[in-house]
Known about the structure:
Low-confidence stretches: none
Mean pLDDT: 87
Shape: elongated
Helix content: over 70%
Strand content: under 5%
Largest sheet: none
Radius of gyration: 18 Å
Number of domains: 1
Structural class: mainly alpha
Distance between the termini: 27 Å
Amino acid sequence: xxxxxxxxxxxxxxxxxxxxxxxxxxxxxxxxxxxxxxxxxxxxxxxxxxxxxxxxxxxxxxxxxxxxxxxxxxxxxxxxxxxxxxxxxxxxxxxxxxxxxxxxxxxxxxxxxxxxxxxxxxxxxxxxxxxxxxxxxxxxxxxxxxxxxxxxxxxxxxxxxxxxxxxxxxxxxxxxxxxxxxxxxxxxxxxxxxxxxxxxxxxxxxxxxxxxxxxxxxxxx
Length: 221
């Protein structure tokens, strides 16, 4: 655990030095959501119906912006080879990097999500469910994204390939996240959707670090 915390601390320090990138992710999230009313119209009832979906889609796209750099800099400067030779299992290294990505990318999006939701006329009854759904579902994005980043490491136009790999896998998370908010607004139980989101993130936490480690070993050979 000490080595894991050191890797996590290193990743957080690097992210803090390049905090402008995290700010750009949040700005992309906000600006992308702002553009939707211009495309679908400013009718409040329509915006309220699609607000949760808009927030989830933009959060996914915003999180994708920094996924391709999760391992790239370490791969280019040789640090990844040293991490692979360290006593800490490579799966734990991948897990630490995924956690750092969630803390520096997804967590700021969760904080900004209520502002976007209110702007899109989402009723206040759904705000708590939206934030809880994002808190439970976004870890899966970072974890599955770590697998995609490892698989596309060193590839030409890896960002495009990464999007093609990850976006289809995130459809269940988007559906469940939006459905939880719709259920809360309709007076139905949102708990089943939230529990499935939590289960998906837990399964990703168990499986994805090992899959990412296998892909990283392949890239290093």
